Amino acid sequence: MTYAVKEMFYTLQGEGAHAGTPAVFVRLAGCNLWSGREADRERDAAKGTCARWCDTDFRGTDGAHGGRCTASDLARTAVSLWPAPSGVRTAVLTGGEPTLQLDAPLVDALVDVGFRVHVETNGTGHVPSGVHWVTVSPKPPAAPRLQRYDEVKAVLCDGHNVEQWAHLAPLCYLQPLWSADDATRSENLQRCIRYVMEHPHWRLSLQTHKMIGLP
Ligand code: SF4
C-alpha cells in the first residue's frame, strides 16, 4: 500500500484546541467533495458547498516532501522534519480529505516512531482506531458520519445551521469564513464573534497560522 502525499511540513497548528503547538502536517492528496480544479467548483458544490471557497491545494503529489510513499517512508520523513530527537511529537493528517487514504497501518507507523496522530476530517469517512485526536469540520450538504470526534470546527457560512453539529464532540469551535478581501474578512469575523457570545457553548477559533505567516 502506498499513499499519495501532497506535501509535508513542520509548522504550528493554527486552529482549535491545539492552536500554537508545533506539528508535522501531512497533507494527503485528494478530496471527495471537490476535484481541486477551478472549473469544477460550481459542479462539486452539490457535494460540498465548500467547493466554492476552498483555498487548499490538495491535488497531486508535487509539494514539499510530497510523492507516493509507503507508511514507513512517510513516518521516516515525518521524523526527519521534527527538530528534537525525543519527546512528544505530533503529526496532523489533513487534506483534502485524509480518510480517503488514512488506515490503521499508517497510524501505526507514525505511532511507532513516536507521534501522536491527529486527524482533520470533513466527517464523511471512517477514522481508524489508534488516532489520538479527531477534528471534524462538517461540509454541508455532506453529512458527517457518527463516530468519535474530539472537537468540531465549523465555519460560519450563510445558510448553515451550525447547531446541527454541536452534539458531535465535547469541544465546539467556530471560525469566520476566510476572505482575501479585508472588509469582508472583518465583517465575517464580527459576525462570528457575535454568534459565539450569543451561543456560549461555542468558542472562537481563528486561523492564527495565516495571521503569523505560517503555512
Ligand atoms: S472538504 Fe475541505 S479540502 Fe475538501 S473541498 Fe471542502 S474545504 Fe476543501
In short:
The protein has 215 residues and is an alpha/beta fold. It has helices spanning 41-44, 71-81, 104-112, 182-198, 208-211, and strands spanning 3-12, 22-28, 67-69, 89-94, 115-121, 133-136, 151-156, 171-176, 203-204.
CATH topology-level fold name of one domain:
TIM Barrel
Q: What's the rounded overall pLDDT mean?
A: 95
Q: Which structural class do the helices and strands define?
A: alpha/beta
The CATH class of one domain turns out to be: Alpha Beta
State the distance separating the first and last CA atoms: 28 Å
Pick out its properties.
globular, nine-stranded mixed beta sheet, TIM Barrel, 215 residues, 21% helix, binds iron/sulfur cluster, single chain, alpha/beta, 5 helices
Layout of strands and helices, then pairs:
Blueprint: E1 3-12, E2 22-28, H1 41-44, E3 67-69, H2 71-81, E4 89-94, H3 104-112, E5 115-121, E6 133-136, E7 151-156, E8 171-176, H4 182-198, E9 203-204, H5 208-211
Structure description:
It is a single chain. By secondary structure, the chain is an alpha/beta fold. It has a domain of 150 residues: Alpha-Beta Barrel (TIM Barrel). It contains 5 helices and 9 strands. Strands 3-1-2-4-5-6-7-8-9 form a 9-stranded mixed beta sheet. α2 runs parallel beside α3. The chain is globular and about 45 Å long. The model has no long low-confidence stretch (mean pLDDT 95). It binds iron/sulfur cluster. The site of iron/sulfur cluster has 14 residues, from loops.
